[in-house]
From TrEMBL:
Pfam family name, one: 4HBT_2
CDD domains attached to this UniProt entry: 4HBT
Stated name of the protein: Thioesterase-like superfamily protein
Organism from which the protein derives: Roseovarius pacificus
InterPro entries in the record: HotDog_dom_sf (IPR029069), THEM6_lcsJ_thioesterase (IPR051490)
Signal sequence, renumbered to the chain: none
SUPFAM superfamilies membership: Thioesterase/thiol ester dehydrase-isomerase
Length: 178
């Protein structure tokens, strides 16, 4: 089940945090609860993706995107992701999550997020290709930035982001055609 209560709590908890620039980093703290774990008593890989929502939505709130979504009747979507899992997160372990927009192109906004253990080790890291959607499809990020009042040029995409975008563009779609 989707963690609606936890999402509402995060949005409430961070509602008065200072606004962030569009590339600012939102930091939040979360606990791995019993319903987040798998048979090995650690954070389930699928649940990890869901918990990353708990960082992205408050980030969107702090950069002014939630207000823009409401005003313009826009939505959000994830159009791709890649995750690195490096350290186990056990039940009742608290992690620090960091979330930020890395860059954008003519269609997508690239977000990176990470979960950090109390020891200072990075447990996992995700890069997401996200989009704002409207009644006519994907809303160009340039229009989104203007709507949130942060009319800034995209930062240069780091090499690793460029490489992922290029590699993903080579994947066949639809897949597994014979």
């Amino acid at each position: 089940m989707y963690p609606f209560v936890r999402m509402i709590w995060q949005l409430f908890k961070h509602r008065k945090d200072s606004p962030l620039p569009v590339t600012g980093t939102h930091v939040s703290h979360h606990m791995c609860l019993p319903w987040d774990i798998d048979l090995w008593m650690e954070l389930n890989n699928g649940r990890t993706l869901t918990l990353f929502d708990l960082g992205r939505f408050p980030l969107a709130q702090r950069v002014g995107l939630i207000g823009a979504l409401k005003r313009r009747k826009w939505g959000l979507t994830v159009a791709g992701s890649t995750v690195r899992y490096r350290r186990r997160i056990r039940a009742f372990e608290t992690i620090e999550m960091r979330s930020r927009a890395v860059c954008w192109d003519d269609k997508f906004i690239y977000i990176e997020q990470s979960m950090w253990k109390a020891s200072g080790e990075c447990a996992n890291h995700i890069l997401l290709r996200t989009a704002v959607t409207g009644k006519d499809g994907i809303v160009p990020p340039k229009e989104v930035m203007a709507e949130v009042g942060q009319n800034v040029a995209t930062p240069d995409a780091p090499g690793w982001v460029q490489a992922w975008v290029a590699a993903d563009a080579q994947r066949p779609w639809p897949p597994m055609q014979e």
